[in-house]
Amino acid sequence: MPHIHLLSPRLANQIAAGEVVERPASVVKELVENALDAGASRVDVDIEQGGAKLIRVRDDGSGIEEDDLPLALSRHATSKITSLDDLEAVASLGFRGEALASICSVSRLSLTSRTADREAAARVEVEGRDMDARISPAAHPVGTTVEVRDLFFNTPARRKFLRTEKTEFNHVEECLRRQALSRFDTGFTLRHNQRVVQSLRPAASPVDRERRIGALCGQQFIDNAVVIDAEATGLRLWGWVALPTFSRSQADLQYFFVNGRVIRDKLVAHAVRQAYRDVLYNNRHPAFVLYLEVDPATVDVNVHPTKHEVRFRDSRLVHDFIFRTLHRALADVRPDDQFRGAVAQSMVRESAVAPDVAGTQAAGAWAPSPGAGAGYGPSGFGGARPAPAQEWRASDQMAFYQSLNGGGGVAEPAGAGATETAQSPVAPFSPAPGVTPPADSGDEPPLGYAIAQLHGIYILAQGRAGLIVVDMHAAHERITYERMKRALAEQDLKSQPLLVPVSLAVSQKEASLAETHGDELRQLGLHVERLGPETLAIRQMPALLRGADAEQLVRDVLSDLIEHGQSDRVEAVIHELLGTMACHGSVRANRQLTIPEMNALLRDMEATERSGQCNHGRPTWTLVTLAELDKLFLRGR
Length: 637
Known about the structure:
By secondary structure, the chain is an alpha+beta fold. It contains 21 helices and 23 strands. The strands form 5 sheets. The chain has an 8-stranded mixed sheet with strand order 5-4-3-6-2-1-7-8, covered by helices on one side. Strands 9-10-13-11-12 form a 5-stranded mixed sheet. α10 (266-275) packs parallel to α11 (315-331) and α13 (394-405) packs across α20 (595-607).
């Protein structure tokens, strides 16, 4: 073995650069974070050739003293922490003092800065080859400008790993988007090859914040989002979460910030997935922009070189808080809260129709989309309210559900809603004959009043904004499912002894975990006994899951306990069973309903949690606005 020796400063910086500087976006992240730590109210970023040729970041922050400029480019030199106490409660975005030194070692860097008490600025220049700092006077306003040229010029192997100019700039743009979402009080400008790509003013008011969210994440997201703000046990969670009907095929619209720092954390991701568990369609992903504020002393941000991961002191408390807050926010959404998003979606569909198309060409323009029935905010529509089609009474609801118990035929199987129309015989259009709308009185319900039933599948209702189309099976499925969940929650989960205990071989870690968490497993209805160092015996199971695979269920629960410190696997399986029962017990296709029965179903939807989507995540209703209908029939032209 060779003798042990110290690495040269240049080689040590280049090794550190391998961790910190992955691509041009990594440089932008570090420089923008330094600007924000300096108290900047404006940050301008200029990029050339995707960042490979030039990265320039200018801010109006506090600046750096001339005597400190060479030290700022040294390793482990920082003004943000001075003692161990500061490290244990880091409140700044950067703190290790490695970024500038690492960037210097793989680029040609110049840093120009001026403080408020100085009349002139100073510039320090460094090249990666020799790392010698050269200081010279310069003209510059209060603040700092950092120019990074020819990234990886002295490390050709690293430069070969850079992608195309467009790809690298997309990463830079995404990096700045995250920083702009984290700091609403700061303005940002992004230019690429002298062309302005993004210009954002400081957003102080809630309206300005929503405008920034719309500009960065898309207006459809903000139109289909629920605003949340909750505090408990020293934690605060606020931001925007999209409704399940506004889901994504990829997890590309998920931003989570802890004390202003963007992170990617498995604990947070699991809590969010759990909150959306029975309302997302298939393998779709939720969209959210969330901010968690905690005591800096209870979170460790020094667990990853790029500071993208954190570790919470009480991870279970944080997980439960995030889950319960999001779960409650999604459950509290009712149809009257969704009209804003529904109208916004219909306006998008309306704008997609050319003004001179024929009626047959425009026929598909108003077809309901998965996100059509989503949104938040007051409904507040002007104009005269349509008269209700028929008065409804609370007794109609009881009669409706009693009539379901006596109905014949085979209930629709779970998951068959998507092909319901193709499998059902075509029923004639069946408006209620001789129905005379009574005089308008009182406030109209959010979902309006039923006027007809279409093909025995859809309920057509007249509302203040236009035509509301309801999938009656999907809507009744959600209502039944939520009632069954409430009934189960009001009574203890009953266990049933197994005739023959199930023995399974596990690792010593899993066996010890089952023994330690025995009380928690019994609360889930699982009675598990340790027979040996690597052997467990399952003696009791929840009565509702008597036909389930006991061995696989226990293994999944233990896996969740190892990964997250808790498990909701049993609850998930039970809810899946209840969902299947609700699907089979709901009103089926081609069932002819009376007007009072349809109105009773609409009123129940307005009072039921998560009624905007069925148990499988499909939307239960959509809106076709009057303006959309007018455009479809070329009215007013």
